[in-house]
Amino acid sequence: MTGLRSAASRAAPSRARASGLIALIAAAALSLSACSEGPSGTTDSSAAVGASAGSAGSPAEDEASPEAGSAEDAGDADTDGEPEEMLSEQEIAQILLSESELPFTPDRHSTQTGLNFFQEQLSAQPEIYTESFGDGACTSAMDQVNAELVGEDPQGGVVQEYEHELEDRTESLYVWMLGLPDPQDSAAVWDGVVEACADQPLRGETDSVRVDAFESQGFEGIELHMDVHNGEGMVEVLGYSASTDYGRHLLMVSAANMDAHTFREVVELQAAKLATHAHQQTD
């Protein structure tokens, strides 16, 4: 896997220009303008770091260290200690990586609870890939993956959003967990996307996207290599989305403008924290 090969020499695409493609990086809905929109149920950590997110019933941010688990143990999290019942928002928040547990110090952090993000921002996105690259098996799979993962009856969840300002770009990271009516096989969904997009780079008038498989510590998903026109020239952007199933829940880690090493480290940390939680449930 490669990093942002030209990020240091060319400016990242503008938010208005890049939001279309990046908004549907797999199941992340990483609209680079999402944080500035201030959707309901969102708390900006610049105003309340460590406080409860949103209104009454929103989860408090968990500051526990993931050291009790290890990346090597994370692969067992998908079979041991999986909850049979639906987790509460507070329990979900305790599983997700907190601000202090990231391998970098974010410049912006917000939390969303409930279903708004999943129903209105994630699964209800327009057919961005088909509109940008035309009809085809790959564009259809990319446009449908959000709805397939979220399903028709999501039960509620928690989304942690982070932004990290660098000299040449802004890294965006989404870590979320969603409750579902029944357990699902998200790996099969990703396999379908990879199969549909294998050896078929998407090419439009100015933009192109290559889809590769991603796998680490029990998380499976895709890695997107995007060449995007920012109004002045072409820039290269990496996007990722990877998930794991946990009982009747889907745990997702997604990022845009982040280098491969940092994303993999985030996934390993999240997998270790999930493994720790699963182990605690068996005690």
Automatic annotation (TrEMBL):
Spans through the membrane: none
Domain of life: Bacteria
Region of interest (Disordered), residue spans: 35-87
Compositional bias of kind Low complexity: 35-59
Leader sequence residues: 1-36
UniProt keyword terms in alphabetical order: Signal
Biased composition (Acidic residues): 73-87
The protein, known as: PknH-like extracellular domain-containing protein
